[in-house]
Amino acid sequence: LGIMGGAGMEPTISPPDTTAQQDSLFSMTDLFLISLITGLLTYWFFFRKKKEEVPDLPKMQTVAPPPRDSSFIEKMKKTGRNIVVFYGSQTGTAEEFANRLSKDAHRYGLRGMAADPEEYDLSDLSRLSEIDKSLAVFCMATYGEGDPTDNAQDFYDWLQEADADLSGLRFAVFGLGNKTYEHFNAMGKYVDKRLEELGGQRIFELGLGDDDGNLEEDFITWREQFWPVVCEHFGVEATGEESSIRQYELVVHTDVNMNRVYTGEMGRLKSYENQKPPFDAKNPFLAQVTENRKLNEGGERHLMHLELDISNSKIRYESGDHVAVYPANDSSLVNQIGEILGTNLDTIMSLNNLDEESNKKHPFPCPTSYRTALTYYLDITNPPRTNVLYELAQYAADTGEQERLRKMASSAAEGKALYLSWVVEARRNILAILQDMPSLRPPIDHLCELLPRLQARYYSIASSSKVHPNAIHICAVTVEYETKTGRLNKGVATSWLRSKVPAQNGSSSLVPMYVRKSQFRLPFKPSTPVIMVGPGTGIAPFLGFIQERAWLKQQGKEVGETVLYYGCRREREDYLYREELARFQQEGVLTQLHVAFSRDQAEKVYVQHLLKKNKENVWKLVNDGNAHIYVCGDARNMARDVQNTFYEIVAEFGNMSQPQAVDYVKKLMTKGRYSLDVWS
Questions:
Q1: Nearest to 192 by CA among 174, 165, 218, 209
Q2: How many C-beta atoms lie closer than 10 Å to residue 481's C-beta?
Q3: Start and end of every FAD-binding FR-type domain (predicted)?
Q4: Which residues participate in catalysis according to the annotation?
Q5: Cβ distance 213 to 223 under 8 Å?
Q6: Confidence of residue 15 (pLDDT cuts 50, 70, 90)
Q7: Which of 273, 220, 293 has its CA nearest to residue 501?
Q8: CATH assignment at residue 77
Q9: Residue 335 sits in the same domain as residue 320
Q10: Residue 249: inside a domain, yes or no?
Q11: Total domain count for the chain?
Q12: Residue 6 domain-assigned?
């Protein structure tokens, strides 16, 4: 442009010789001017426009109006449905409950469909009244600290921003939560309240399922009161007994190209052979285990430290994030199920949805073998829910066993008590039930249809990406216990991870994984003090935090007080990462290390006792130093006891009443200064 400008100015500084010369010069000027203007216009309309539009392209794709398929209203009209059951599900339970409710509908002359809110445009809720006797049910699980599940995030965002008129909407909500968590059933409560605020008509009270108690019983109790209210509202009656309706049909493949058969992939066929980023729940990365060592020196438990290699995966993580791993079931359990049912587990089959309009064509990736399904896709170790028992009852040749199964699946008090004692408390999985009921021999395809999906397991990442950009560290304890029936039950993921030995070759050390972002974050300013409370494997995220603070210190940043309260059973048995912590303390990164050994003395000492012992220092850090508090580990007892201890410290040193102290701590949580990463 500079050169063109210079050429354009040339005539004005040239001496005027002759008219002819001037004419030719002016025509040259004209030429240059035209070129200049053309060039500017070309730049303006094409290049400049492109430059502005490029950053907007991804946005345009995400906010583009959804295709017609995303209208659940159109789908309901097309397929003659009048009840839609949406589910917000992280581990598959809410989806399972939604499927059960949608199947229930046929007993009342109604037709239901289960729907993933991620796949539909939920603003269509305002149009549901276009369908006669229509109803929207929401089975909403709460994840983490009161958060929506991944598949309900968009729905949650829409509800917060929506000013839709839902006055024609009839709805009901069942929430899935856990009372040991601070924000019990937050998502279910929010959806129920917000739909009413937008004008929706609640036709049945909010159900609050508690996974710390008996979630299955909570759901059954709510469900058996829900349907009579629906019947009364629409003036319909039950058409009779609950009947077994198959959702999928079996197709056995005798002549199939093995390259078209799934062998454990979660989404795309052959995705484990041909890995392509980005990696997520539907496309996990196969990470090599480069280290797997036992952490404890004694005791009956096996605590382990694993390192996963994420080189060349483009996976990014931050301290405090979670790593999800997809485990595999124990091959001996799979083989025993095959033997009991007299099945060739290597049969290649597909289970195809009988409802051709359904978005869910198969219950798991198909075609595949029964062996693959039972190993990678189905949960065979958890006690089955009552609907599974009900459906299986028809295959018990012995009438006594058939009645027992039906009773356990009933809503009668006696049946609920039997289910609780015989299945839940005895921790009987499907194999144990088949072993203890010799006449129960269901077709394996129906069993595969009924069993829930095997879910990914989440672990707090025990490393910092600033120090380990190409590795993710896991700290875990293997779960192993004897049941009331004398069987040895093993945790699926931890037993599987324990067997992952670093190897030069082969798949024996590969782990399908992805990273899930978390809100568990270090303060923005490195100079802010942190108080970390994490007994047992709850130390995991704090290893990442301390590594990061050490790195920041090396970069010349001012790093605030870094305080750790850690606990284990015995100093000589299970003091995890003792050497690493001692080194960090020596380097001055870990400014305080308080360790509670619960069983090294007559009276048990836990982390909360050490917090009380140092209460003055704790208060000073929190009140004067604006410290951030982090708690990781067991939700049921430890997290609750630690929180109560903070209430006591705040009340004593802040001269507050108990309610004021509770309010003070809750405000810390709201401000992101008291964070939890807990499990039950």
A1: 174
A2: 10
A3: 282-523
A4: 460, 632, 677, 679
A5: no
A6: very low
A7: 293
A8: 3.40.50.360
A9: no
A10: no
A11: 4
A12: no
Three-state secondary structure along 571-617? HHHHCCCHHHHHHHHHCCCCCEEEEEECCCCCCCCCHHHHHHHCHHH
Looking at the fold, whether 167 and 203 belong to one and the same domain comes out as yes
Q: Tell me what pLDDT residue 171 has.
A: 98
User: What integer is the mean pLDDT of 31-39?
Assistant: 58
- Cβ burial 624-654 (10 Å sphere, 16+ → b, else e): ebbbbbbbbbbbeebbbebbebbbebbbebe
Residue 152 in any domain: the answer is yes
Whether residues 103 and 213 fall in one domain: yes
In a domain, 29, yes or no: no
Rounded CA-CA distance 364/285 in Å is 19
More reliable by pLDDT, 66 or 531? 531
The span from the CA of 36 to the CA of 33, in Å, is 5
Q: Six-digit token pair at 360?
A: 């869910």
Q: Give yes or no: residues 83 and 210 share one domain.
A: yes
Tell me which of 36 and 534 has the higher pLDDT.
534
**475 plus 536 within the same structural domain:** no
pLDDT (tens digit per residue) in 536-570: 999 999 999 999 999 999 999 999 999 999 999 99
239 against 292, higher pLDDT: 292
Query: 325: which 2 tokens?
Result: 């791993």
- What's the pLDDT tens digit per position in 590-630? 999 999 999 899 999 999 999 999 999 999 999 999 999 99
- CATH code for the domain of 307: 2.40.30.10
Rounded-to-integer distance, Cα 507 and Cα 451, Å: 27
Rounded Cα distance, 190 and 203, in Å: 16
Do 334 and 288 have their domain in common?
no
* Of 97, 106, 108, 111, nearest in space to 139 by CA: 97
What CATH number did the domain enclosing 660 receive? Answer: 3.40.50.80
Same domain, yes or no: 418 and 547: no
Phi and psi at 391, nearest 5°, equal: -65, -35
One domain, residues 379 and 426: yes
Q: What is the pLDDT of residue 24?
A: 42
> Which amino acid is located at 589 in the chain?
V
The predicted pLDDT at position 31 comes to: 52
Q: What is the per-residue pLDDT for 32?
A: 55
Domain encompassing residue 646: 530-678
Nearest partner of 302 among 126, 459, 24, 496, judged by Cα: 496
Dihedral (CA of 552, 555, 559, 564) sign: positive
